[in-house]
Amino acid sequence: MQIGVLAKKVGVNPKTIRYYEEIGLLPPAPRTKSGYRDYTERDAERLEFVRSAKVLGVALDEIKEVLAFRDRGVSPCPYVLELIKAKVAEIESRIRGLRMMARELKRLQRTAAALPHQKIAARAHFCHIIENQKLVAGAEKH
Questions:
Q1: Could you tell me the pTM of the whole model?
Q2: What is the C-alpha to C-alpha distance for residues 5 and 39, in angstroms, rounded to an integer?
Q3: pLDDT for residue 120
Q4: What pLDDT is attached to residue 130?
Q5: What CA–CA distance (Å, rounded) separates 16 from 22?
Q6: 80 vs 54, 55, 68, 86, 110, CA distance in Å?
Q7: Distance between CA 25 and CA 47 in Å, rounded?
Q8: Contact status, residue 43 vs residue 3, Cβ threshold 8 Å
Q9: The domain at 1-74 falls in which architecture?
Q10: Is it the case that residue 58 has pLDDT exceeding 80?
Q11: Short-list 39, 53, 54, 31, CA closest to 5
């Protein structure tokens, strides 16, 4: 099948397919006599796998490694389990960081709402709430 047919079948842009071929996620497609790339059903399955892995947050270089395991005839599942474990830890860490940021922003919001804006705002270059976080945080203690 030609690149346009493959792109439509899998739901990706033809440029993406060319890029994946360039970086080694897809093997180079054989060419027809007229010079068009000629993809197979196996290429479509591989692209579907790449799309599924990307949805799970797996990076292209990690996907390439998974595919390399398979291409060598080795099960990539132990590697994938380690990837999943690392992704879960990363996501949980980001969630903790976002929760801390949300608490800090809520505190800043409460404190800033209680300040006499004219006095502080007059000294600000842009916005006193952001520029004077320490000042705003200090006012909360008083």
A1: 0.72
A2: 9
A3: 61
A4: 75
A5: 10
A6: 13, 14, 12, 10, 44
A7: 8
A8: no
A9: Orthogonal Bundle (1.10)
A10: yes
A11: 39
Residue 136's Cα: distance from chain center in Å? Answer: 34
**pLDDT exceeds cutoff 80 at 114:** no
pLDDT (mean) for 26-35: 93
Q: Which residue has the tokens 């800033």?
A: 112
pLDDT of residue 110: 86
Burial class (CB in 10 A: 0-12, 13-18, 19+), 133: middle
Q: Please compute, for residue 45, the number of CA atoms within 13 A of its CA located in the half-sphere on the CB side.
A: 4
CA proximity to 132, closest of 119, 120, 115: 120
Residue ranges of the domains in the chain?
1-74
125: buried, middle or exposed (CB in 10 Å: 19+, 13-18, 0-12)? exposed
pLDDT at residue 112 greater than cutoff 90: no
What single-letter amino acid sits at 65?
Answer: E
b/e per residue 58-88 (b: at least 16 CB within 10 A): beeebbbbbbeeeeeeeebeeebeebeeeee
